[in-house]
Amino acid sequence: MAFPEPKPRRPELPKKLLGTLECKQGAVRAVRFNVDGNYCLTCGSDKSLKLWNPYKGTLLKSYSGHGYEVLDAAGSFDNSQLCSCGGDKTVVLWDVATGQVIRKFRGHAGKVNCVEFNEEATVILSGSIDSSIRCWDCRSRRPDPIQILDEAKDGISSLKVSDHEILAGSVDGRVRRYDLRAGELYSDYIGSPITCVCFSKDGQCTLAASLDSTLRLLEKDTGELLGEYTGHKNVTYKMDCCLSERDTHVGSCSEDGKVYFWDLVEGSLMLALPVSNTAVQSLSFHPAEPCLLTASEGRVQLWREESFVVEEGAVA
């Protein structure tokens, strides 16, 4: 006898505070889950990069080698390497286990805002205030980038990479998507400086946050505007946006100290999560669970859904 499939649970939003990391690295400029969501990286204004187990609240390793504040970081698919970038104009490739610098890539003319690995972690892509995206080969000893994408007319604020695309947001108000298979560049004009871009999990849509306090959901292939989300405040700082683990909700940091979530389809505000008295600098949504990390001031907070129960023996 075949049993019916269990009914999928209604998507829940993370609103229960489970733990706080006192990062002790100045202002936390960015927080990022690793690929499987078991660990996280924090980028500090004190030039340090730190690796944590956020569920146990334990610091696993500190990485020092940047000459100025660290602005973004990412982990490789196998968790063996990290890349980071910062105000010292460099991109750094790290060995996770030893904490050693493997390579330092220099070439950007200004601070580097964002960094990503490609899927195989053979190439690092970095976006800078100098208006360029540079692609660095992790395996060669060449000091120069293998490719420079310089179509933007102003600084690159945000980058995402899929298996065959590069998505970039720029202060010039455009979202650009480089389709590497087709060799095509698609550009969508938003008008206000872009602070963050991301792909939906199903790869059909792109989400862009901009300094007019608006998130916009675009159909990837046509550029059609599918939804606009407002209610938060973002007029000054670079702020992260995200989609929830099942593409049901759209989320954003805000300068009023909250994190906002909207229903993706209806556009209605579902949650304004009070996080801090000052602007929420960065957020990261877990790849598979309704779990959220937020960074504000010098700390990172871990949030789960209301129904979440901490397992015996686990430390929240």
UniProtKB/TrEMBL annotation:
<feature type="repeat" description="WD">
    <location>
        <begin position="63"/>
        <end position="104"/>
    </location>
</feature>
<feature type="repeat" description="WD">
    <location>
        <begin position="21"/>
        <end position="62"/>
    </location>
</feature>
<feature type="repeat" description="WD">
    <location>
        <begin position="105"/>
        <end position="137"/>
    </location>
</feature>
<dbReference type="InterPro" id="IPR020472">
    <property type="entry name" value="WD40_PAC1"/>
</dbReference>
<dbReference type="GO" id="GO:0071013">
    <property type="term" value="C:catalytic step 2 spliceosome"/>
</dbReference>
<keyword id="KW-0677">Repeat</keyword>
<dbReference type="InterPro" id="IPR036322">
    <property type="entry name" value="WD40_repeat_dom_sf"/>
</dbReference>
<keyword id="KW-0853">WD repeat</keyword>
<dbReference type="Pfam" id="PF00400">
    <property type="entry name" value="WD40"/>
</dbReference>
<dbReference type="GO" id="GO:0005737">
    <property type="term" value="C:cytoplasm"/>
</dbReference>
<dbReference type="InterPro" id="IPR001680">
    <property type="entry name" value="WD40_rpt"/>
</dbReference>
<dbReference type="InterPro" id="IPR019775">
    <property type="entry name" value="WD40_repeat_CS"/>
</dbReference>
<dbReference type="InterPro" id="IPR015943">
    <property type="entry name" value="WD40/YVTN_repeat-like_dom_sf"/>
</dbReference>
<dbReference type="GO" id="GO:0000398">
    <property type="term" value="P:mRNA splicing, via spliceosome"/>
</dbReference>
<protein>
    <recommendedName>
        <fullName>WD repeat domain-containing protein 83</fullName>
    </recommendedName>
</protein>
<dbReference type="InterPro" id="IPR051980">
    <property type="entry name" value="WD_repeat_MORG1"/>
</dbReference>
<keyword id="KW-0963">Cytoplasm</keyword>
<comment type="similarity">
    <text>Belongs to the WD repeat MORG1 family.</text>
</comment>
